[in-house]
Amino acid sequence: MTSPIIITGVGKRIGYALAKHFLAQGQQVIGTYRSHYDSIDELNALGATLYPCDFYDDAQVQSLIDELTQLPPIRAIIHNASDWLPDPVLTKNEPLKSTTFTPSQVLQRMMQVHVSVPYQLNLALEAQLRAGAGDEIGGSDVIHITDYVAEKGSQKHIAYAASKAALHNMTLSFAAKFAPEVKVNSIAPAMILFNAGDDAVYQQKTLAKALLPKEAGNAEIIELVDYLLNSRYVTGRCHNVDGGRHLR
């Protein structure tokens, strides 16, 4: 049996697509999820090993780490789990709007899911990742899924953008720390898939932000992940998938 690939946040979108992709190749997949969707039952039926874990709950995170550190050598870990909290709207004479969290809570939660948990998992699984490389230089991988806003910032999701920038910075540190057995890279997508409720006006406005005005689709990320896993000479880099938004 192949060494497992761990993917956090497999319930929907990119994480779900990646899990199905690797399972179809006969790859052992271990996934985490916060909310139970029909996709979780599907992945279970396809042979994935899945752990429910709320990354905002320190006790659950520690239990997950305790489970994962019992695994054999690991081929890769893909840090995909994410949340997208807007910044609170503050005015002089009115209470918070747009979110039930205070500014401090929003920042803490974004840093928890995008920085603290990946940091803890990487450190806890270092030996298994190195072992998963076998005798190959760069034979195993850590991939952080960040966001194109880590480079340009965001007016309404400042805490989110800051946490994704911190996640990429950890890419640099872990790439140096885990070399030469483990490659560590980040992928920074922009709009990959529209949600079911996104109307035509929103879609048109969003597409116009890119030089390549189209919905990228999960295949773009899957192919890039495959490239990074197969490469033996790329580490410590951010790979942007933004359709040229940075040039608008």
TrEMBL record:
Family that this chain belongs to: Belongs to the short-chain dehydrogenases/reductases (SDR) family. FolM subfamily.
Annotated organism of origin: Shewanella vaxholmensis
Function: Catalyzes the reduction of dihydromonapterin to tetrahydromonapterin. Also has lower activity with dihydrofolate.
Keyword Ligase recorded: no
Reactions listed under catalytic activity: 7,8-dihydromonapterin + NADPH + H(+) = 5,6,7,8-tetrahydromonapterin + NADP(+); (6S)-5,6,7,8-tetrahydrofolate + NADP(+) = 7,8-dihydrofolate + NADPH + H(+)
Keyword NADP among UniProt keywords: yes
Enzyme class of the recorded protein, top EC level: oxidoreductase
Keywords: NADP, One-carbon metabolism, Oxidoreductase
PROSITE patterns: ADH_SHORT
Protein EC: 1.5.1.3, 1.5.1.50
GO molecular function, one term: oxidoreductase activity
Protein name: Dihydromonapterin reductase
Gene behind this protein: folM
